[in-house]
Write a structure and sequence with these properties.
Layout lengths: L9 H15 L5 H12 L2 H10 L2 H4 L5 H9 L8 H13 L20 E2 L6 E4 L5 E4 L4 E6 L4 E7 L1 E5 L8 E5 L2 E5 L3 E7 L2 E8 L2 E5 L5 E3 L4 E4 L5 E3 L13 E8 H9 L5 E4 L7 E7 L3 H11 L2 E7 L2 E6 L1
Parallel strand pairs: 5-7, 16-19
Antiparallel strand pairs: 1-4, 2-3, 3-6, 4-5, 6-9, 7-8, 8-11, 9-10, 10-13, 11-12, 13-14, 15-17, 18-19
Helix pairs in contact: 1-3, 1-6
Length: 318
């Protein structure tokens, strides 16, 4: 396939996908990370290929989990080898009709969720029932409406829902840790390493955990729900609703935790050195400009921000 002077070649896209798998789906060693850095700096087109492909794992959020795992991890032998899967993804990645220039999702309507966002993208939409929905970075949902019920399935990431209370149909929300039911609720769901974070701002919301009795969640409550169905009040250093206003608002958050949160909104690698990870961060930061956030960290804390490349950033002691 011919390429322009500013576009990466197919081989470079293939290499970028290989690095994506090694960095995000394996446990890379320091040597592997060094080799990636060397590859990234070896040619300008490598950096462009990485920029485009680094969102690929987010775009695969809507794939059935078994297919996604076989494609990216190659842990099970199928008719198609891991290399062939990667080649297939490379073809998808460089196809001009997929709209990279416009920063649109990959065109896989039969496999991807109804609505999804890439890294750093937030999206607002309105359901056919008049409910207001917001998706945070790297998130995906399915929506289903019938004459008797409204349904939202959280495929990946984070979503807020403000139900239209004038619609009398019950609204069911399906997640990997259980279901919720409401009619007039304003609530937020976020997948995390412990299961699911649930916050309710208003309305009547009932949680049906996977292996526990139903539980009414009151306005103002924020719960952490485990995959086993247990739940407890969440202890947070950040306003869970902040992103819906385009901000990251934190109070006394350890820098390591802050960097992990910020990395959700940036493609590439963002690391925090252990010796500064315990420093505390407070303030309200605009998510639209993560570069500015990094600059503010360097000004307000005894840290330095080192850019090996635009997509490889380390925060360490001064």
């Amino acid at each position: 396939m011919p390429t322009s002077d500013n576009a990466p070649a197919q081989a470079q896209v293939d290499q970028a996908i290989d690095w994506l798998v090694r960095l995000r789906f394996d446990t890379p060693s320091p040597r592997t990370r060094q080799q990636f850095e060397q590859w990234l700096a070896s040619h300008p087109h490598n950096e462009r290929a990485w920029e485009r492909v680094s969102n690929l794992s987010d775009e695969l959020a809507g794939l059935p989990s078994e297919l996604s795992r076989r494609t990216l991890e190659g842990r099970q032998r199928q008719r198609t080898s891991r290399r062939d899967h990667l080649k297939l993804l490379g073809v998808l990645a460089v196809g001009g009709s997929l709209g990279w220039a416009a920063h649109e999702p990959l065109g896989l309507p039969a496999l991807l969720a109804d609505t999804h966002t890439g890294t750093g993208e937030r999206r607002q939409l309105q359901g056919s029932d008049g409910s207001r929905i917001q998706l945070n970075t790297a998130s995906a949902i399915d929506l289903r409406y019938s004459s008797t019920q409204r349904e939202l399935r959280l495929v990946r990431g984070e979503v807020s829902l403000a139900c239209n209370a004038d619609d009398n149909r019950p609204y069911q929300l399906d997640t990997h840790v259980g279901a919720l039911s409401t009619r007039d609720g304003h609530l937020l769901l976020r997948e995390n390493g412990q299961g699911l974070l649930l916050a309710v701002r208003s309305g009547e919301v009932t949680l049906f955990p996977s292996s526990s009795a139903a539980r009414r969640v009151e306005p103002g409550e924020v719960l952490q729900v485990s995959p086993a169905g247990s739940y407890h009040p969440a202890t947070l250093h950040a306003d869970p609703w902040g992103w819906t206003d385009g901000v990251l608002s934190v109070q006394q958050m350890p820098l390591g935790e802050f960097v992990a949160e910020l990395s959700r909104y940036r493609p590439g690698v963002l690391r925090c050195a252990p010796e500064v990870a315990g420093l505390k961060v407070s303030g309200t930061y605009q998510l639209a400009d993560t570069e500015q956030i990094l600059l503010l960290l360097a000004r307000s804390l005894p840290v330095r921000v080192d850019y090996r490349t635009r997509y490889w950033v380390s925060i360490g002691a001064v």
